[in-house]
Design goal:
Length: 397
């Protein structure tokens, strides 16, 4: 009897052990996902951890540049409406479809926008309706140089009115005129499409109209020391330094020794792009300092009433460049200015009566608008590329 009891007891223990083993094995398999499920989970849920999303490494800005807005009385008289206001927008009819498509579009406001209260005037001391600025803003221009030899044409009052006009406008960067030393000396850094840039403007000419002592901030007159100090404040904080220079010899199609000297000095300070105005005619473009800096010495007039003069003063350049920044896997950035493309423009107006001023791309000209325009186009293209800039001549759209 004892033997049977012991046997039964052993059997019960064996059954209990077997049941426990079954439970343990099932538990193990229950908590271990199969290989397929694991792979599916890795594929669907863990992709962001094991395969990080690639960050954007290439950034670019498309920049368009045009020259001087030189508003002679013939132009603002042509823009006068019956209600006493001015409308310059029709004059840019063929430019707006081009300029409005760019990330940045630059022009030089040659004549002060001092407003009606101080009286409109023409050469030699200009003051233009502020509707000029409205037309350029409407056409997409958002980078404006204000430092030039006509800045002080209407004295301090003219500059005050000009700056007060521009500072009310949104999405525009202007420089070269200020209302205090504090404003002038504050480094300004801007960003577009992931690229940081600084924009400075200087003039080497004042027409003998100096700023009041202690108020030199009204017009940014160039000096090596001033440029060095300004550029040092921003160079390490931005990808590109852009400088607008009002320099050179009026009506000269060649680069002066002074322009050459200043361009090399600015390049050595780290300036990437130099935009030249003042000669009122086009001049060459080139890469200098082993390609570190791109210079257009003069874009010529964008709009003017130099009708009685040669076509040199009625022809200007629309120039496109691409500002590129590439970032490698080590987060090191390299920058370059590439793909210069150009198209010439011409200011047309009637000889008598209603003048109907309008800026035409050369691609829209004919021999009625400008006789011999095709040969003139070749002449100016040759001048601009004479220093090896290799600007491609394309229809800018």
């Amino acid at each position: 009897m004892r033997t049977k009891r012991r046997l039964k007891k052993k059997v019960k223990i064996a059954i209990i052990i077997f049941i426990l083993l079954v439970i343990i094995v099932e538990s193990i398999f229950l908590f271990i996902p199969n290989k397929k499920e694991k792979n599916e989970k890795k594929t669907n849920d863990e992709v962001d951890i094991e395969q990080p999303i690639k960050k954007k490494t290439n950034y670019s800005i498309k920049l368009l540049m045009v020259g001087d807005a030189l508003i002679h009385n013939g132009i603002y008289e042509d823009a006068l409406k019956s209600n006493g206001t001015y409308d310059f927008k029709p004059m840019l009819e063929y430019i707006k479809p081009i300029s409005s498509k760019y990330d940045l579009a630059y022009y030089n406001q040659e004549t002060i926008l001092g407003g009606a209260e101080i009286g409109y005037s023409s050469y030699p001391r200009f003051n233009s309706p502020q509707e000029v600025g409205d037309a350029f803003l409407d056409a997409g221009f958002n980078l404006v140089s204000l430092a030039n030899n006509h800045t002080m044409d209407k004295g301090e009052a003219g500059v005050i009115n000009s700056v007060n006009y521009w500072k009310t406008k949104k999405d525009v960067v202007y420089t070269g005129q200020w209302l205090s030393n504090e404003q002038r000396n504050k480094p300004m850094i801007y960003e577009k499409n992931g690229i940081k840039y600084a924009f400075l403007a200087y003039t080497t000419w004042t027409n003998g109209l100096e700023t009041p002592k202690g108020k030199e901030y009204l017009n940014n007159v160039y000096s090596n020391a001033k440029a060095k100090n300004d550029i040092a404040k921003v160079r390490d904080k931005v990808d590109f330094v852009i400088v607008a220079m009002h320099w050179g010899v009026e009506y000269s199609l060649n680069v002066s020794q002074s322009q050459d000297t200043i361009a090399k000095y600015l390049s050595n300070l780290g300036v990437d792009l130099i935009i030249g105005c003042h000669p009122h005619v086009v001049e060459p473009a080139e890469y200098i300092n082993n390609g570190k800096t791109f210079v257009i010495y003069s874009l010529g007039n964008f709009i003017s009433d130099h009708q009685q003069k040669t076509t040199d003063r009625l022809t200007g350049l629309m120039l496109e460049v691409t500002l590129e920044k590439k970032v490698n896997e080590s987060n090191e950035a390299t920058t370059s200015i590439t793909n210069p493309k150009g198209e010439l423009i011409y200011t047309y107006s009637n000889k008598t009566g209603k003048r109907n001023f309008k800026v035409y791309p050369y691609s829209k000209l004919n021999n009625q608008l400008l006789p011999n325009y095709q040969n003139l186009e070749k002449k100016y293209q040759k001048i601009i590329n004479s220093k090896g800039a290799n600007i491609s001549w394309e229809l800018l759209e």
